[in-house]
């Protein structure tokens, strides 16, 4: 029963996100991975079955969702580098007050980041369990995609950064060994204390650079990304819509996109309502 509530929360959020952000005259639309994105594609299909719209998947599962819906899937690396997508939709494992996200619970994060960064608008859809004030409140770990040969190096590096017990993710059948990503890489799940946001640093709640055991979202993301052997980190932070708009205005850069951080996150609630957090 609880599952049915969660599923209808995801569907309600997806319906509203698509109503607000999918323009049927779009030419390129990014499609993320996971269980919630299925409802996004379902909602898109109710509005448009236009085969001229190019849907860019973020991995194998994502491509299957697009293809099974009868829509046109186009590989990311088949598009010219300056193609900006109208919008990219995706799920999230946890979202904080600043709209920073943890992603990669389903082992997809690298291609999701590539696609999100190319989109003019990056929009996330999730259920009520994902809405928190700080990252690592309910979701326990940061997923990190690593080169198999570098696993011991990265585990050691993560412990140095303060992660108490980072672990290599196994398949559900433990005897099959480590789970492989779409890139044939591995995933390490690293626990840290809940991550600080900018207002916490201003309020003196910690330095946020790891020196006192606290980490601010962007600083931890950069520190993990700096470990040799890390392909990508499942922290989606940094610039989002309004910031990107400001850069576009001052630098006359025409292709500045949404960045890694969503401009809006749609949360489906248990009572069927939908709550939207938008970039300030
Ligand atoms: O690795 C998976 C992706 O980052 C998903 O978008 C994320 O885990 C959310 O998935 P779901 O919609 O199934 O909660």
Automatic annotation (TrEMBL):
A molecular-function term among this protein's GO annotations: ribose-5-phosphate isomerase activity
EC number, UniProt record: 5.3.1.6
Keywords: Isomerase
UniProt keyword Isomerase present: yes
Pathway of action: Carbohydrate degradation; pentose phosphate pathway; D-ribose 5-phosphate from D-ribulose 5-phosphate (non-oxidative stage): step 1/1
Residues passing through the membrane, by range: none
Catalysed reactions listed for this entry: aldehydo-D-ribose 5-phosphate = D-ribulose 5-phosphate
GO BP, sorted A to Z: D-ribose metabolic process; pentose-phosphate shunt, non-oxidative branch
Gene3D superfamilies to which the protein is assigned, alphabetical: 3.30.70.260, 3.40.50.1360
PANTHER family (UniProt xref): RIBOSE-5-PHOSPHATE ISOMERASE (PTHR11934:SF0)
Protein name stated in the entry: Ribose-5-phosphate isomerase
Organism whose genome encodes this protein: Bimuria novae-zelandiae CBS 107.79
